[in-house]
Each structure stands twice: as C-alpha cells, then as structure tokens.
Amino acid sequence: MTQSQVAEVADVAQETLSRIERNKLAASLDLARRLADALEVKVDDLLSARRLPPRRGLRPAEARLLAVVRRLDEPQVDEVARALRLLLGLGVTLADQKHGVQGHASKKE
C-alpha cells in the first residue's frame, strides 16, 4: 500500500503522514488507531520497532473504496452495498456511463 493510499484510507493528509514517517511529527492516539486500521495491523505492531512480515496489499481501487466506506455509518454501508449489487446485476459500469451506454437490464414479461 502506498503512502497516498494509507493516507486516504486513514483520512489524514499525506503530508502529515510523511512528517510522521520522518519523525518530524508524533501521531496522536486517534491517528495511530486509524493508521493501524488502514494497514490492518495492531497499534502495538505499528508502534513497535520490529518489522512485520510482508502481506498482500490492497489494490489502489480497493483502497479508494475502503476509504469511502470507512466514512459511512452502518446503514449507509448497507445502502451502498445494495446499490452496487443492483448496478452490477444490471450490467451497469462506470465505463458505460462515461460513454452514454445503458446497462443491460432484462425485461420481465
């Protein structure tokens, strides 16, 4: 995960994250928790000096979606999930919308 992706998912400015990484700024406990959540590690692991084993990171698109979803409350997450399932079921994609193509909804007869 890139610094930019971590910053987006943790809802912090990339410059702030950069300053923390260079030991120019100390992270608050709240920010440490958000960073740990974004990196899917424990706060203790984030603050310890030991290296963690590498793991498969999120793809950039996944990180962007996660950043959006983490800002929503539970009912909003449910609504977004339902809307996505509906759009995907209709065959609608963002690429279709850019080109003015309608989704492929089947007609009920």
Can you walk me through this structure?
The protein is built from 7 helices and no strands. It is mainly α and 109 residues long. The chain has 2 domains: 3-47, no CATH class; 60-98. Helix 1 packs across helix 2 (14-21).
List the helices and strands and how they pair.
Elements: H1 3-10, H2 14-21, H3 29-39, H4 43-47, H5 60-69, H6 74-90, H7 94-98
Helix pairs in contact: 1-2, 1-3, 1-5
Q: N-to-C SSE series?
A: HHHHHHH
Secondary structure: helix percent: 55-70%
Rg (CA only): 19 Å
> What proportion strand?
under 5%
What's the overall average pLDDT, rounded?
Answer: 80
Low-confidence stretches: 103-109
Number of strands: 0
Q: How large is the count of helical segments?
A: 7
Largest sheet: none
**Overall number of domains:** 2
Distance between the termini: 48 Å
> What's the overall geometry?
elongated
Q: What structural class do helix, strand and pairing data support? A: mainly alpha
Features of the shown structure:
109 residues; mainly alpha; 59% helix
Give a concise summary:
With 109 residues, this protein is mainly alpha-helical.
